[in-house]
Amino acid sequence: MDWRKVLPYWGLIALVIAVAGWMTSDIGPIGLTVLFGLSFLWFLFQAPVPCGAPIRKEGQTCRNNARGLLRGCHIEQHKWQRVRSIAVRPGLHRTQHELFPDKKTGLGTLGAIVTLVCTLTTTTLALLGRGGGGG
Fold it and tell me: For FRET with 41, which of 32, 69, 79, 129 sits at 20 to 30 Å CA-CA?
């Protein structure tokens, strides 16, 4: 197995391990929190998605490859334009359009939302001293 092809997807691997650990109760809430948190960060800053930054043509977005939902492509102006376009523009419809413009970015956004919810849930369980783990 060529690890150079697998390593860029470490966030998905962490997500699969966390979900399997949650379903089997083999990993405690603190371990799950760490795995889900790392996976969440991967979706935000490392997942391969299209750039999606607004360009000069009306209603179109940049189609260059980017790393993460919040980062732009190699063009300097696009580097953090995604964050600004999601955070600064008010309105649910506009935000939904920014986060789910196509299937690939939509899956990344959905993964980030799922990992965020799981991270918050497992953190709460860890703080309350609940949640299985280790049998």
Answer: 129
